[in-house]
Each structure stands twice: as C-alpha cells, then as structure tokens.
Design brief:
single chain, TIM Barrel, Immunoglobulin-like, about 20% strand, 2 domains, about 30% helix
Length: about 425
C-alpha cells in the first residue's frame, strides 16, 4: 500500500506528551499549565498533545464536569480552561521554546447539545422518528452523518479555524476509523495547504495509514499486558515488533506508550497493568522505531487513576522522580544518530531469549544496544554471536562498556541496559 502523504520532517524523530489540562493543575487552566512548559522543554518534550479544548455539552453530561469528547462547539474554547486568547498565548510560548502543539479532534460525534443540533440537524444520523443516536453505546454523544457533504465542509472549516487562528501544528484524530477514509484525505489536502501538519490517528486500521503519519501501538500495549500476565511468551511479543517493521506502509510509524488518558482512567495506571515492568517498557518506547508517548504525570510517577468526568488534579509538589529518567531517554533520541527513524532495529539473539529482549540500531557509524530484562528474576545474559563489537557508554551511568564476543551482563529483575557508541 502506497502512502499519498509524507510526514512533516519535524515529526519523524519526535516524542509526544499528552496534556490533561483539567487535572494538570489546581486551577486546571491553560495559564496554569504554561508554568510547566520550561520544565517539559528541559525534559525533552517535543510535541504537546492537548486533549479536546472545546466546550463540553451539558445535556446527558457524565459526572460533574463531563467528557472532553462530548463537544458542544467546534470553534470555541472550554471556559473551564480559560479563553481563546489564553490558548493562543500558550501555543505561542510553546513555539518560542521550540515545541509543537497538536489538539485532539473528535470528528465522529458531538455532544447532545452541540450548536449543530439546532442549526443543522441534517448533520446527524437520525432514526425513523427523527431522533439523534449513537452507534457505539456512548451515553453522552451522538453520531455525525458523513453522507451529508455540507457537514463535511463545516467540519473541515472548524479544523481550519484552529490552524489559522491559533497556529496549531497538527491533530490527534479520535477514533479516526469511525469516520470515512475519504473525508480524511480531503481534510489533509485542504489543511496541509495552509501549513504542513502532523496527523496522529487513533486507529489500527491499516488503510487509514495512507493518511495518518502515526498510529496507536495498541497491539504492542495489549500484548505486553498479556505477556506480563504470562498468557503469551516473549517470542509472540517479537512477532508484534516484526509486524511493525515489515507489514506497514513506509512513512507511518507506531506511537508507543504504557499509558494515556483512556488507559489510565479505564484500565489502570501503568503500575496496575505492568507492575515493575513499566520501567523497561518505557525504555523500549523511547528506543524502538516509533514515537514515544508520555501521559500527564508519568514523570512523577503517576500512581493513581485520573477520573474522566470529574476534577482530581495531579500533585506536582517536589521534583518529579522520573524527570531525569525521561530526560535522559528523550535527549538521547534527539542526539544519537542510531535513534533516527531510518535506523531499523535488529533483534539480537541472547542466552536467555525467553526473558530478555535485546536489539541494536545503527546509523551514520554510530550504534545503540538495548537489553531489557522482561522478567521478575535476575538474569546473567550473554549476546550470542551478536553483530555488535566495540566500546560503548551506559547512557544512565556514563560508565564505559566494552562489547565483544564474550560480553555478558547481570541484570536484576525488570532491569535494563542502554549502550551507545
């Protein structure tokens, strides 16, 4: 399958940080979040993804504050967060720091009292009695009617508003496979004509990768959970990685994560899902060939679920415990040639293939070696006939390491080793 679009250059080797504005600070506003921009910049964050910033419908609202994903007006700001001027100022500050901003776009449905329900009811699916409805058993939203081409035009016009008015850099498109693919083709052509944008699609549907530069690494996430529960083996995990390497169109890549807003709220924190395996998986996300995602507060670390419909802010007292951990990984991604997207990983054979995942990446005469103990036991691991030789540096300790035919390392349970030449 051939892609019609090429990803914008800055997106290829970037990372993404998902911002949950409501829960990020006590105030829950753009202005309060802006105080964190320098810290996030220092941590190495490239792209800020803001969960939906539009007003939330009141009719059939869930909880006290409602779901970000039940939009009441595509061209307005949720007053809970501040004003349009506040958001524009936030984008400007991020740009001054060299960061990019993408916003969550919910194109499949709106809330029950979206302004279109009054002005353009034909924009919605309706049953035989003329009632709006939703096909996914989501209580607080109703489906849009993509057979109505006026609605399609209005949707693209709303997206255009945020690009032209606020100078955003792209969209994270919610459940994009629920919207006809030809709509996304049109949207990308028209909106990229204003400025080249980054397109992140919440999907696993391969045809949609013709449009979207980056897709959800759900397959890896779900299989790592199965592996942690001892339902599958490490060989089956490697099959997923081979799928990402060889079965997808060029120019698109997975977003890799251990948490996001849905996972944290509905399925549990990364520590609920993975226990201590969360840490080597975070190392993997930042060193495999994809785009790593860090969710609000993971650098603390965040050990609680954040409610979806109510207020329960993150506690930022003190220095985040994993700030330096993520800074090391994210800066490595920026600086090391072997972590460029063109450097394809090669899985290495080890003396303990049932518990250890090891791989190397090479580019421009430089090499990266990653060894992950994905088990609750200490292991003594050797690289068996590995095509890796030379002098390396442990990126977390800065200690020199020589890798040769007799190289071995002792890794504690859930430990990791990242070496660079």
């Amino acid at each position: 399958m051939t892609r019609r679009f090429s990803p914008i250059a800055w997106s290829i080797n970037s990372n993404i940080y998902e911002v949950n504005i409501r829960q990020y600070t006590t105030e829950g506003t753009f202005n309060a979040f802006a105080q964190h921009l320098p810290r996030l910049k220092d941590m190495g964050v490239d792209v800020l993804w803001f969960m939906p910033i539009t007003p939330i419908s009141k009719e059939k609202r869930q909880g006290t504050l409602g779901s970000y994903y039940a939009c009441a007006d595509y061209k307005a700001i949720n007053p809970e967060f501040g004003t349009l001027a506040d958001f524009k100022s936030l984008v400007k500050k991020a740009h001054e720091l060299g960061q990019k901003v993408i916003i969550d776009w919910v194109a499949n449905h709106t809330g029950w009292d979206h302004i279109w329900t009054k002005s353009n009811p034909e924009f919605y699916k309706q049953d035989a009695e003329g009632n709006f409805y939703d096909t996914n058993n989501w209580h607080d939203v109703i489906d849009l009617n993509y057979y109505d081409h006026g609605m399609r035009t209005a949707m693209i016009d709303a997206m255009r508003f945020w690009v032209k008015e606020c100078d955003i850099d792209g969209f994270r498109c919610d459940m994009c496979h629920l919207v006809p693919l030809d709509f996304w083709f049109r949207a990308r052509v028209e909106l990229d004509a204003i400025k080249p944008l980054f397109w992140l699609g919440e999907t696993l549907d391969v045809p949609y990768l013709q449009v979207f530069d980056c897709f959800y690494g759900w397959r890896w996430m779900s299989n790592t959970q199965k592996y942690y529960r001892q339902e599958i083996n490490l060989g089956q995990l490697k099959d997923v990685l081979n799928h990402y390497q060889y079965d997808l169109p060029d120019g698109t890549f997975p977003m890799l994560f251990t948490s996001n807003h849905d996972e944290n709220t509905w399925n549990g924190t990364e520590y609920e899902k993975y226990g201590e395996m969360a840490t080597p998986l975070a190392v993997f996300s930042c060193t495999w060939n994809g785009v790593p995602l860090i969710y609000t507060g993971q650098e603390l670390p965040l050990r609680k679920r954040l409610p979806f419909f109510d207020k329960d802010e993150v506690n930022w007292n003190g220095t985040p415990e994993l700030q330096t951990f993520y800074k090391t990984l994210l800066q490595l991604r920026k600086q090391h040639p072997a972590l460029q997207i063109v450097a394809k990983p090669e899985i290495l054979v080890t003396s303990d293939n049932d518990r250890v995942l090891a791989f190397t990446r090479k580019n421009e005469g430089k090499e990266l070696v990653v060894i992950l103990n994905l088990s609750a036991q200490d292991v003594d691991v050797q690289l068996s006939n590995a095509p890796v030789q030379g002098k390396f540096t442990n990126v977390f300790t800065q200690q020199p390491v020589t890798v040769n035919g007799s190289f071995s390392a002792r890794l504690k349970a859930w430990d990791y080793l990242v070496l660079t030449s």
